[in-house]
Structure formats: structure tokens, C-alpha cells
Amino acid sequence: MAQFIKTGSEKVFRDPVLNSIRVKDQVILDLIGTSEFQRLRRIKQLGVASAVFHGAEHSRFSHSLGVYEIARRFANHLAQFYPSQEPGDGLWDVNERLVLLCAALLHDVGHGPYSHTFEHIFNTDHEAYTQSIILSPDTEIHQVLVKVSTDFPQKVASVIAKTYPNPQVVQLISSQIDADRMDYLLRDAYYSGATYGQFDLSRIIHVMRPYAGGIAFDDKGSYAIEDYVVSRYQMYVQVYFHPVSRSFEVVLQHLLERAKFIYDESKHDTRVNINFISPTLQPLFAGDLTLQQYLMLDDAVMIADISAWRHADDPILKDLATRFIDRKPLKSIVITDETRNLLPTIKQLIDSAGFDTRYYTAENDSFDLPYDAYDPKVKKPRTQIELMQLDGSLVELSTQSALVEAMTGRVFGNARFFFPREMLVQHAVDDIMAPIYSDFQRYVHNETLVAPK
């Protein structure tokens, strides 16, 4: 077992969010040095959001290091104050430390470029790829993990899959309050300049308590937990659901859909040239990626092709690529159940203005729950946040916080309709589409779809 082998000295990564990221275990350093983990330097944490928040250029590499560091602090706290004394006592088993740290470090290693848009178009699953990278004997990551023990890669992968037998380990990596969420909220707030993403990380760690069913928090720390939940809500409203970020996701989605359409057409029409897609991306469009081909994909590979598509023969692909590269987002308006019936009418106007509505319009719904209590009847029940009282009994967070109770189960966000910004041009000169633009604008008021008077 290499589990307790330390480096010759502690390695420290300077970090603007967590100050210091400390590594003593050789296996962690070795994992960081693998080609699969280094690839995360070339994948932005927030995807297209940097087109809106210019500082948000941070990578999944820095986020993954941050998740590792927060998990390390979790483990240190639990080992110092709540070490298990005997099997089944519900306290922290110090032998779980390394599997926790490795799972924290590797939890995002399977992400592709522009992760969520990428997954939607090409039907990939970053968690499944993460597990494959960990379990495949051909990866450097697997070769590092298997040196700990032959079954260690499977243990780490099972934490990602949420099947690991110790619920404490799983919950520290994946729950409504975990190392992953804590780091991305703090890190995304820092790089986007959004101060409302801040919360008291040290206090939350201080009130953390293990129990047989997972992780709870001292009820004296309820205000720190409450602050975390509110911070998460604010970040989703102000950053993650920003309408211009969503616009660029729509442009990217339709851009990739158009490229895939042309690629698929080439199978039936030999006159269609597929050389506009680089050899690195062609297996992706063919839907026949090996793991090694998947690992060749990153933001740089994707942006190189998109940049080249600005000179494509296909006018739609060419225009969408130009809009994406040169930051020309679509515009959007809020739609409601009461006004959704107007969409066919305004789509017809957009079509009359010369835009293919398959590629220049979209309905995009962004909704989320700031917090939700556990409900076993839903498809993906959430692990609720438990507070531990003096007698050791557990109570659910919203029963102790009026603010969280008001937010529990309440969906926030909105539905938007995206369309070409040209439709909002006013007083168009020498444009034969001007009457169509004016007609369209009768349906827009205060960035909301309305019935014209």
C-alpha cells in the first residue's frame, strides 16, 4: 500500500481563492502531473461565460485543485475532532482520507470542452467519462491509482458514481453542500467579480459533524449554512443564468448542430466536403469516439475549428461562427405560459426577415432550486442539509431557518426566447426588412414577450 507515502516535503500551490493548496501525498502530486489532469488547464470552468464576465478565464484545473484542498481541510477537521474509535460508531474513519482526496481532485477530469453544451449536442456524459478515465488501464491516472492498491481505482470511481459504501465520503464530494459546490461558488465569484458568491468557508468546516448516515453541521452554525444557500442562489441568478451567457450557449449549440447536420449530409451526398471539420473533431461528429480520442478534445481544439468555420462555404455555419468568435450574441426576451402561444407568430416574422428559425431562434429555460429537502419520490432526490442538536438528534435545515424555509422547493429562473439582434433595429435605413422589424418590435416590451395592443 502506497497510501501513507508522503512527499519529501509539503508542496504548496499558491491560489487566489483559497490562498494555499497543500499537498503531502505523493499520489496526489502524481495525479496532478498526469496528461489527463493537465488537460483540464485547457478547459474553462465557466465555458462561454467569459464573453460576459471577462475575468472568468479560470480553468477546471484550478477548480479541481480547489475541490481537493477543501476536501483536505474537511478530512483534517474530521480526523482531529471526530476520529472513529470503533467500527460502526458513526465517526470519521481516517483510512478514508486518500480515497476522498483522490475523488475530489478527479471529480471533473471527464469534462469536455464547453461542457454542458457539448454534452447536449454529442450525447456525452462527463461523469461516465470520469469513471472511464479512472478505470481504464491505458490512462496515466489509472496507473497512478493502481499503485495504491489494485482495487483503489474502483473505490475512487465508485465515489464519483455515488455508490461508495461510506456515505460520508460521497456526501463530502456530492451533496447540496460539498467541496465541489463550495469551491466553484467561491472561485466563480472571485473571477467573475461577483461579491455575492462569498460565504464563510472556515466556519462551515468548523461546525461539520460526522454521523453514521453522512455529514451534518452543528446547529450553532446554521447562519453560516444559511449564508451559503443564499450565496448559491445569488450566483445562479446573477452569473450562471445570465441571459447573455445563455445566448452564447444557444449560438454555440446551433453552431455545432449546423456543423453536425452538414457532416451527416456528407454521408448521403459525396459533393459535401467534410474537410471543414478537423481530423481531431471528426470522430466526435461520427459518434464513434475512443477514450483516447475524447481526451484529445479541449477548448483550444474546439475554438480552432470554430474560428476556421468563419470562412466556411455554408452561409449559416459561417455566420454563426462569426457571431460566436466576434461576440455578437443573440438577443432574448422573457416568455411566460400566457405568452408562449405568440411564439409561432414572431417566429414567422423572423423567418420572413431571412433567418432560418432552426438556427437563429431558441427557447431556453433556466431554472433551479436554491435548496430542497429530501424527497424520495422525485427522480433525483437531493441529500438534505442536516443540523445536529446538543442531544445528537438531527433536524433538517429549513426547519431552523426561516430564510431557507422560504426558499425551499421554490424554483427560480426564467424562460427566454432568443432571436437575432437585427430584429430590434429601429429606424432602419435602406433595409427592405424594416417593416418586418417594426412589426416584430410590437411584441416586445421591457425585454418581455407581450401581446401587441
Description of the structure:
InterPro entries: dGTPase-like (IPR050135), HD/PDEase_dom (IPR003607), HD_assoc_2 (IPR045509), HD_domain (IPR006674). This is HD domain-containing protein. The protein is α+β, with helices and mostly antiparallel strands and 453 residues long. The chain has 21 helices and eleven strands. It has a four-stranded mixed sheet with strand order 3-4-7-8. A three-stranded antiparallel sheet has the order 5-9-6. Strands 1-2 form a two-stranded antiparallel ribbon. A hairpin with a 5-residue loop joins strand 7 and strand 8. Helix 3 packs across helix 10.
Taken as a percent bin, the fraction of beta residues is 5-15%
Structural class category: alpha+beta
Q: Provide a count of the helices.
A: 21
* Major sheet details: 4 strands, mixed
The multimeric state of the shown protein is: single chain
**Residues in helix, %:** 40-55%
What coarse outline follows from CA principal-axis ratios? globular
Strand order of the largest sheet: 3-4-7-8
Organism: Weissella sagaensis
Domain HD/PDEase: 56-194
InterPro entries: dGTPase-like (IPR050135), HD/PDEase_dom (IPR003607), HD_assoc_2 (IPR045509), HD_domain (IPR006674)
Pfam families: HD, HD_assoc_2
What's the helix and strand layout?
Layout: E1 6-15, E2 19-25, H1 26-32, H2 35-38, H3 60-81, H4 97-106, H5 115-122, H6 126-135, H7 140-145, H8 152-160, H9 167-173, H10 179-192, H11 201-206, E3 208-211, E4 214-218, H12 222-240, H13 243-266, H14 282-286, H15 291-294, H16 299-308, H17 315-325, E5 331-335, H18 343-352, H19 357-360, E6 362-368, E7 386-388, E8 394-396, H20 402-407, E9 412-419, H21 434-441, E10 444-445, E11 448-449
Parallel strand pairs: 4-7
Antiparallel strand pairs: 1-2, 3-4, 5-9, 6-9, 7-8, 10-11
Helix pairs in contact: 1-4, 3-4, 3-10, 4-8, 4-9, 5-13, 6-8, 10-12, 13-17, 16-17, 18-21
